[in-house]
Each structure stands twice: as structure tokens, then as C-alpha cells.
Amino acid sequence: MSTKIQKLAGFRDYFAEDVKIREYVINVFKKVFEKYGYEPLETPALEPSSIFVGELGDEAEKLFYRFKDQGGRDVMLKYDVMTSMCRAVAENINKITFPYKRYQIQSVWRSEKPQRGRFREFTQCDADTIGSPDVNCDAEFIQMGIEALKNLGFQDFRANINNRKLMNGIIQFAGASIKEFIPICISIDKLPKIGKEKVKKELIEKRGIKAEIAEKILEIFSLSGNTDELLFKFKKQLKNIPIAIEGLNELETIFNYFAAVGLETKYFQFTPYIARGLAYYTGPVWEFEIIEGDIGSVAGCGRYDDIIGKFIGKSVPATGGSFGIERLVEVIKQRKMIQTSSNIVKILVSIFNIDFFNNSLKIADQLRKNNISTILYPVINDKLNKQLKYADRKGIPYVVIIGPEEVAKNVVKLKNMKTGEQKTLSIEETIETVKT
User: Fold this and answer.
1) Confidence (pLDDT) at 171
2) 128 is in an annotated binding site
3) N- or C-end of the chain: fewer Cβ atoms within 10 A?
4) Is 20 exposed, middle or buried (0-12, 13-18, 19+ CB in 10 A)?
């Protein structure tokens, strides 16, 4: 009885074309991150569960790949790279020069229901600045993210920017309690998707918020205008709520940074209803949204000044964000935004028969020593026609044919698989032809 062989649900195999697109996207981010002074970090796949438990909220904990190892230790596959980074920073606090700017591009695991665009293993692409309370670091990250998305070829996108302190202030202004903060924010975050009336209904009926509080909250979120106009209106409305004014002042600092570097206004906006990372963000929060094609959010980001301090007993300010590599790769692949091929081989060296194997081997070796990607046909006794069909199916552009006549004259036949043209050349001429 044969066993059905298939991968686990929510996991994927990556063959050549997908690998190449992923590498392209990752390399774009690496170049931009390093251009802004971020340095690489990698942390283990397996971490103590204690660094995640109680930090990310009940909903996140339902998705943990958590188990006892053979030594009876409570461990888990890392849920995100940020928390793992916080552990690494806390553990090496006396070895790191602060402020510390790091990027990290690694796999994480979440036991969620597989669906389109959601997988149980995926790659997070993070960058963070640790040790600076200055929100100009937040602004720099947004500028950097915009540059990365532009370099990937996206045009119609923007950073939606808000501040957790402002959200706190609005809840306080409306008369809601602290325990109602997260439920209210979760509903408010749905405003652009379901509209004001459905959010109001959800706040009252599902979240148990008093009608007058819900109305007061939605009255503020109904304010309209461009970024400058909205900031002015919010400051006027919330002038007696210090935490809200603090958040608005931080937002003004960010927008002043953008003005100073001449950042195009189409790439960012003040979006007061977005709520990201409610369990840990403490100041500015933002997402990068691809508008064309209704792709939606491809990154969640913000300031988290309290997390690292929990590991070491003192406050360590931090800010940064995470891009969803898988989502970006899927969009880039579907839209054919970059030209790529699953084939990386330039030339196949055929084998006439076993007596001429060494001749073919030496040709292949010379090609490789000249940095030409070369396959020496892997089966010695296959007929030439089969070898040519193999090259054609693999999309290999050139085939070297070398038999008794070619060996006697110290030449090869070079076949162009696209045109069918064959030329008799020296090995030096072959190298020159394939390289051009």
C-alpha cells in the first residue's frame, strides 16, 4: 500500500522561478536597509515560549507552534522576528552599540487556517531602530519603506500613518474605559471597509459600548480633510487631552521630516482610524497599503517603547516594522513586474559516448572556470537527440557537441537552441560567444 505524499497544509515548496523572485525582492530590501545604515541580524527558529507568552495577546497565542522538547523545555517556533530580536538585544545588551539599527529577514511560523495569502510558514522582513525615542526614526523608516516599494516597481501605494497616543486620547475624550480601548480600536479599524453605521452597530451590539460614547468617537473619526487640515481639526477638538496632543505633535514631526526631504505627498497620509499591534505599539503606527489592484496592506509598523524593557528591567525605546515578503512576491509574480526565468544555465555540454566523456568534462570545466553556468549532461549513454531535447525542455540556450571529428580538430560544435544554428568554434570562441 503506497502512502500519499504531500506537503502539510499551509506550507509551500519553492521551485526555481519562485526562489529567484523571492531572492530579487529580498535583495531589494537588503540594499535599501543597508543604505539607511541598518545591519543584519539572525535569530534561532526555536525560542523559549516564555518570551512570547503574555506579550502578543490571546489571539496570537492561539496560533503558537508550542511544544515540549526532549529535555522537557517549553519551546516554540518563533511567531515573529521582532520578539526574538528583543530577546537577542536584551541578552546582549552590554555588547551592542546603541542606538542599534538592525534588519532581519527570516521565516516565522503561525498555526492559522491556511487561505489565499496566508500561510503557516512565511518570511518576515523587519527593520528596527533600538535605543532612540526620537520619532524622526519613525519618519526615516517610512521614507525607507516608500523607497523600497518604489524600487520593487510599485507606483500606486501609500503609508497610512496614525498614533497610538492619539487613539488613547480619543477614547479618553469619548468617556470610554481603558479596558474598552482595544475592542473599540478593532472596530474603528474597519471604518473604510464597512462604513460608519456598521461600525457604530458593532461598537454598541458586539463590543458593548454605550451609544453616546460610540457616537462621540465616530464624530471625531468623521472629520475630513488633507493631512494638515485633519491635524488642525484634531488638535482643536482634543486640545484638553494631553496624551492626544502629544500624539498629534509626534505626527507633525513626522510630516515635517517628509517636507524637509521632499517626499511626495501621494505616498503618505494621516489615517486616524488605523490600529496596528494593539498589544505592544506605544506611539506612531503605520501600514503600507498597495492601492492598485486592491492589494491592501503589505506591512505593519510602529513604535514599541515597552517590549525590550520587559526583558531587562529598564526602558528601551524602539521603532520599526515588518514587510510581508510572500504577499509582495505573489503580486510581483502575478503582474510579471520583473523578468525572470526558472533556468539559470547558459550551456549544456553533451556527451558523445563514454569514450569521449573526458573531452566533454574538460570543456565543461573550462566553461565553469570562465564563470559560465554549465551542465555536463548527467547520463553518459543517452543518445544526442535525447540530450538536445533535455536542453530544449530546460530552456538552455546553447549546447556543445563534441565527437570524434571535433576532438581531432580541437574544436566544438556550438548549437543555438533558439535558432537551430550550429557553428564550429574553438573553445575560446565558444566562451566568447556564450558570454555575450
Assistant:
1) 87
2) yes
3) N
4) middle
Strand partners, 115: 118
Q: Which is it for the CA torsion 299, 304, 309, 315, positive or negative? A: positive
- DSSP class of 204: I
Please indicate if the annotation marks 189 as binding a ligand.
no
Q: Check: CB of residue 186 under 8 Å from CB of residue 260.
A: no
Long-range contacts of 59-62 (CB under 8 A, 24+ apart): 60/279, 62/111
Strand partners, 75: 48, 67
Q: Cis (ω within 30 of 0) for the bond into 272?
A: no
> What letter would DSSP give residue 227?
H
The pLDDT assigned to 1 comes to 59
CA pair distance 306, 316, nearest whole angstrom:
7
Positions of CATH 3.40.50.800 in the chain: 347-435
Q: Give the DSSP per-residue string, 334-386.
A: HTT-S---S----EEE----GGGHHHHHHHHHHHHHTT--EEE-S-TTS-HHH
User: Distance of alpha carbon 58 from its chain centroid, rounded?
Assistant: 24
CA distances to 18, 266, 347, 393, 407 from 417, rounded to whole Å, are: 25, 47, 10, 10, 22
Known binding residue 36? Answer is: no
Burial (CB < 10 A; 0-12, 13-18, 19+), residue 81, is buried
Supply the CATH classification number for the domain 16-334: 3.30.930.10
- CATH class, 347-435 region: alpha beta
pLDDT of residue 176: 83
Which segments of the chain belong to CATH 3.30.930.10?
16-334
Contact 123, 104 (CB under 8 A): no
Q: Alpha-carbon Rg of the chain, whole angstroms?
A: 28
* 10-residue mean pLDDT series, the chain (436 residues): 82 89 95 97 96 82 93 94 90 93 96 81 94 97 97 94 92 85 82 81 84 86 86 92 96 97 95 78 94 86 88 87 90 85 85 95 96 95 95 94 95 95 95 91
Question: Which three three-digit cell numbers place residue 257?
Answer: 521630516
How far is it, in rounded angstroms, from Cα 191 to Cα 193? 5
- Cα dihedral 278→279→280→281 (10° resolution): 10
Determine the pLDDT at residue 248: 97
- Please state, as a whole number, how many other Cβ atoms lie within 10 Å of the Cβ of residue 238: 20
Give the pLDDT score at 341. Answer: 64
pLDDT of 72 reads 94
124 annotated to a ligand binding site? yes
281 assigned to a ligand binding site: yes
pLDDT at 33: 97
